[in-house]
Amino acid sequence: MLPLRLLVLVCRIVPVFDQYALVKWIWKIGRAVEDGCTLISMIGQKEGLEAAQVLAGQILTETRSARVAVVIGIMESQNNPDFISIKGWIDRAEELDCDDGQLLLILKFVCSMHFPEYNNKQIVDEMIACKYLPMEYSRAALVEKADILCSEKRWEEAELIADHLLCVKEDSHARIFKWIVSLQRADHGQAEIHFAKSKGNIPEHYHSALVGQGYLYLGRDDEAMGWLYEAVKGGLRWPMQKESPVGRMLQSDKFAAYCAGRN
């Protein structure tokens, strides 16, 4: 990290509007991982994904930090998902034996639905147990764990996770889990309360997909198809893994017939 006085001097020399040049200079002088990651993100915005990939490869080799692999891997997943390329960043970081290799759990989680060598349930448990992941990824692991538990009809355990999430802040996914468990208990009053709060600020078609998935977990396929129809109509793009209840339903003859009757 640059000393504060030197950083202030740099800010006086480099125009404030040219943040890219400033970060590039700071990385050149200090070679700190955080600055390298910031530069990768900025060059991706300025020059495109390919330029960011080239720079990430150089910085990863130099710093031997898995944080670099995570930054470029997440960037790839958001811009042009190529899971083979993302897996390549995992492999490169592991070959370098990065000290912060636990951060690779984030990318393994992203890839777990596409490569059999990454066991989704195991990775989720490792992410929950890891004390070094950013909060948003720990939360994502808890959401995934609760979803797995609901799919296995382990209602009480899923509810415990939902309650934990809600202790931190309001959470649409947690409300969906509470809604599912309340319906399973035939507690319709509580189900209505949680359902109303589940809408939050998530896109409507995604909310419809979550509701449809909940009904599938409860074995109420007819109601599930109605919500999934609305989700698809709204632009849903759902990963079609074989083990996904929603994926199986969306590819089924039963759902195709349902959609034909609605169109």
What proportion of the residues is helical, as a percent range?
Answer: over 70%
Number of strands: 0
Contiguous uncertain segments of 5+ residues: 1-17
Number of helices: 16
The structure class reads mainly alpha
SSE ordering: HHHHHHHHHHHHHHHH
Shape: elongated
Description:
- There is one protein chain.
- The chain has 263 residues and is mainly α.
- It contains 16 helices and no strands.
- It has helices spanning 4-13, 19-30, 33-47, 49-63, 66-79, 83-95, 104-111, 120-129, 135-151, 155-168, 172-184, 188-198, 204-217, 221-233, 245-250, 253-262.
- α3 packs parallel to α5.
- The longest helix has 17 residues, at 135-151.
- It is elongated.
- Mean pLDDT is 89; it is low at 1-17.
Break the fold down into its secondary structure elements and pairings:
Layout: H1 4-13, H2 19-30, H3 33-47, H4 49-63, H5 66-79, H6 83-95, H7 104-111, H8 120-129, H9 135-151, H10 155-168, H11 172-184, H12 188-198, H13 204-217, H14 221-233, H15 245-250, H16 253-262
Q: Short description, anyone?
A:
This protein is mostly helical and about 260 residues long.
List keywords for this structure.
about 260 residues, mainly alpha, about 0% strand
